[in-house]
Amino acid sequence: MATTVEFWGGVGVIGSSKVLITEGDHRVLLDFGLDIPRGTDLFRPPVVPRPQHYLADRLRVGAAPRLPGVYDPAMLGPGDPLGAAGPATAVFVSHAHIDHCGLVGTLRPGIEVYGAPETVAVMAALAAAGDGLPGGDPGWRPLAERTPTAFGPLTVERITVDHDVPGASGYLVTTSDGVLAFTGDIRFHGRAPERAWRLAELAAGCEMFVTEGTALGLPVFPGPVRTEDDVVRDFAGALEAAGRDLVLLAMYPRDLERVREFVEVADAAGRRIVWGAAVAAFLRALDVECVVAYDEVGLDGIKADPGAFVYQPDLRDLRGIPDLADLPVGAGTVWLHANGEPLGPFESRWDLFVEWLAALAIPLRRIGSFGHATADDLHTLVHRVRPRTVVPIHTDAPERLHPVGGPARLLAEPARAYDLGGNPIRNPGA
Asked: What Pfam family does this protein match (any one) (predicted)?
């Protein structure tokens, strides 16, 4: 029976990756990410999702795909036909970001979920810190690199790549009709670009190459791409410039490489990074050294010696923003944003965050580094892989990928089935 490929997420949007490969009565699902809305996010604060209706509510408003045979019937509305069992399915997660694994907790019992050992460790630490997946975490199966795993007629192999979270992976799926390769999220300007280029070598000549294309829809980068060396240098310089005043921080805790480097830089500057309780618990579960929780220092401790600390408040839902008014803000105080919460101007929380900083006279300085491949690197990647067909997803501008020298480009439609050559087989829902 011919292999089919369907794209149930990541089509025309950044995030929400879901690539379904079917052969016979077996299916492999690459990523099962939380859907990222094209427009307004109906679940943004102050809306609080209903835990007992989490999946049903998202399906009702189109914030989760109606993919048959994968959801836990207990999380669906009464009589929802999605509760019927489907073909044997296994899920392979590329990395521990919510837009790639955020719906894994809604999966039907018995569906196997695989990921890199580092991904499994990050997800376990999140659950231990009270930040697990809605619906609960599955029984994660750690998958060693370059270890072919058979699932019916399909064979899946995990390849470590470079991204801003441990365990980031691409996958090779071998079918009777050839190989489909998937990048997950990938970059070439981090600490380990050789990992990303190795995926290109291993995927070379594949039938279908599914690549993230986040940067395709973004403005041209002004000047050289910022590296992790740039980020660390700017962090160290900002601490020196602050003198003995408090420095505030917003960085992404799952970027453990950067966390450890920042802890070392802060220590060299005579400071300790203070984290909110949940983040501190998460980092300790992953054996990060020198973790200091806010409740161990307290506001009085920070006020007593502001220059001894870098403080990252917990602003995931912004309810703690008024507490910022109590902090000892000095002339050298600055808020360093290194890809933390809130994530950026595209978020509904960003404007309120910036307004509060302006009202409190706290300068905002963005020192992060882009976690995804640039458009130039994406084109080089496709050229090196030389697939028969390339499919850009995880981007709002897939039409800006222009393969040269042979590969056909498929601008996929949601839920439509294609063969590995990119030819449509049936209409969505047929």
From this structure: Lactamase_B_2
Handedness of CA 377, 379, 380, 384 (dihedral sign): positive
Contact predicate 254/100, CB 8 Å? no
* pLDDT single digits (tens) 167-204: 999 999 999 999 999 999 999 999 999 999 999 999 99
Residues 6+ away with beta carbon under 8 Å from 356: 321, 324
Nearest CA to 202 out of 214, 191, 190, 194 is that of 194
CB contact burial 372-381 (16+ within 10 A = b; e otherwise): bbbbebbbeb
- The phi-psi region of residue 323 (left if phi > 0; otherwise alpha if psi is between -120 and 50; otherwise beta) is alpha
Contact 74, 80 (CB under 8 A): no
* Token pair belonging to 137: 């975490």
Contact 30, 92 (CB under 8 A): yes
Check: CB of residue 333 under 8 Å from CB of residue 245: yes
CA distances from 269 to 48, 114, 260, 266, 368 (A): 40, 41, 14, 5, 20
CA distance linking residue 397 with residue 389, whole number of Å: 17
364-366 β-sheet, strand order: 292-293, 272-275, 309-312, 247-251, 334-338, 364-366
- 137-140's contacts with Cβ under 8 Å and 24+ in sequence apart are 137/104, 137/105, 138/104, 138/105, 138/107, 138/111, 138/113, 139/113, 140/113, 140/114, 140/115
- pTM (2 d.p.): 0.94
Parallel, antiparallel, or unpaired for β 292-293 and 272-275?
Answer: parallel
pLDDT in tens, 122-165: 999 999 999 999 999 999 999 999 999 999 999 999 999 999 99
- Please name the residue that has the structure tokens 């109606």: 66
Asked if residue 215 lies in contact with residue 202, where contact means CB atoms within 8 angstroms, the answer is no
